[in-house]
Specification:
single chain, 186 residues, mainly beta, 7-stranded antiparallel sheet, 6-stranded antiparallel sheet, 17 strands, globular
Amino acid sequence: MTVRVLRAADRTAVPWKNGGGVTREIAASPDGAPMDAFDWRISLADAGADGPFSVFLDVDRTLTVVEGAGMDLTVGRRRTLADERYRPYNFPGDEETEGRLLGGPVVNFNVMRRRSRTACLTSVVRGELLVAVPSGSTVVIVALDGTTVLDEAGVTLGRYDAAVLDASPGSLHTDGHAAIVTLLSR
């Protein structure tokens, strides 16, 4: 089993594609891929003002509010209230999207995947569970709050730290919330 630990303290903030905020990339495939060429990308984004989201062709997005009151999203003509912390909200990244803050700045956990190249499942868990890494897939675990421990791997993740796995690490225990993102190339 290979476990690559990615510490939150090692990330740098970069401007969004549309310049409306900053993002901190957690992991992407292929490594170092530019914004128009990734198969998948996982990040944390700071949003301090209302405004448009960047458009990404052939990309599906999952947004999970991890800090703040949330956002009122308008995707195409559909309105979604993303106001429940730690609940993933899915929407197409190639539709015009506007976000309005509900009560001040937010931090969002974002998963983007190119739908023609990658299948994806994003879950947020709390407590103890057995983690399985399906053959040919990559699993990324991110501690969203509290501490997350990958028992058999002997890895402890603090807030916003991540682990990239290519094989099952056995059990996971989190005293906060942890995101588990399973990515499978098509």
